[in-house]
Amino acid sequence: MKRKKIKILVTGGLGFIGSYLTKFLLKKKNYSVTIIDNLSTGSLKNLSKKDIKSKDITIITKDINNLPILEKLVKNHEIIIHLAASVGVKKIVYDSLNSIINNISSTEKILKYCSKHKKKIMFASTSEVYGKINSGKKTLKETSDVMYGSSDKLRWSYAVGKFFDEFYIKAYQEKKKLKAITLRFFNIVGKGQIANYGMVLPNFSNNAKKNKTLLVHGNGNQTRNFTCVKEAVKAIYLLMNTKKAWNETFNIGSEVQISINNLAKKVIKITSSKSKIKKIPYKDVYNKNFEDMYKRTPDISKLKKFINYTPNKTIDKIIRETVN
């Protein structure tokens, strides 16, 4: 008897993480995938022609907030993976209103229909929800406190919006018995990521290959933890298929940190570039009210405990894959 395929709905499925996840699920052969993507940051080019022509994929290039059949789609799928969102620091700073509306209202609709039709949801949150707490020698646990800047600084609207979405999910879990997994992503990078919205590694890679100057914002001593998108996708898949993981929140990220200065140097070395590094104040890139965080390193002990998995691809290998 032929096994019935598990139907997965992926919002933002043509975006960076979404397209990798879609390709991963299609290769498993026991999933059918429906994508909703408004093409604001996603692209059909992120999938191969073979993927697009697959009998196991349906692609809807519409905005979630203006999709009359959204409830029907949720009802007809077993798991909803909600990745659709406005992303990137530049987009958040310069298009705050649309970003806030898009990120909150789309999640509100998805949660409403998932609850009504008893569907499971995996929600893409972000390390940004920890705000401007600099973790120092400590790593950030899923239960760590958070701290945001003033509402004058629209840079924090993305973080607050995602954190509100997390509260929304918790409330649905408590009152409506919604089954959900919240994923806090830490700087997911890899081949195919676009540089348009302030993504640092693809920006460095693109400029280094052209021998252009690499612009480091601030003093460059701020550190980040970069995670290969393929490893993030594997973590999503393993969590999705782990019964005890439902109704939990997980950090998805690497434990290895690197300063932006050293990242720029590595990119130049790996690409054999003649590029120079130039440091520019945040106010010259964004505005005088912009704030950044010095360090944000995830504690992924919970991820290891639940699925026995650790993203561990080296930053050098990630850079090489991104550059190529």
Please outline the helices and strands:
Elements lengths: L5 E6 L4 H13 L2 E6 L12 H5 L3 E4 L9 H6 L3 E4 L6 H6 L1 H21 L3 E7 L30 H20 L3 E6 L2 E2 L10 H10 L4 E4 L5 E2 L2 E2 H12 L7 E5 L5 E2 H11 L6 E4 L1 H4 L15 H7 L7 H9 L1
Parallel strand pairs: 1-2, 1-4, 2-3, 4-5, 5-6, 6-11, 7-10, 8-13
Antiparallel strand pairs: 9-12
Helix pairs in contact: 1-8, 5-6, 7-9
Written description of the protein model:
By secondary structure, the protein is of the alpha/beta class. The chain has a single domain (6-189, 227-254, 297-311), classed as 3-Layer(aba) Sandwich (Rossmann fold), CATH 3.40.50. Helices cover 38% and strands 17% of the residues. The protein contains twelve helices and 13 strands. Strands 3-2-1-4-5-6-11 form a seven-stranded parallel β-sheet, sandwiched between helices. Helix 1 packs across helix 8 (229-240) and helix 7 runs parallel beside helix 9. The protein is globular, with a radius of gyration of 19 Å.
Task: Give a quick precis of the structure.
With about 325 residues, the chain is α/β, with parallel strands linked by helices.
Beta strand %: 15-25%
Model regions low in confidence, pLDDT < 50 over at least 5 residues = none
How much helix, percentage-wise, in residues? 25-40%
Shape: globular
Which structural class should the secondary elements be placed in?
A: alpha/beta
What strand order characterises the main sheet?
Answer: 3-2-1-4-5-6-11
Order of H and E elements: EHEHEHEHHEHEEHEEEHEEHEHHH
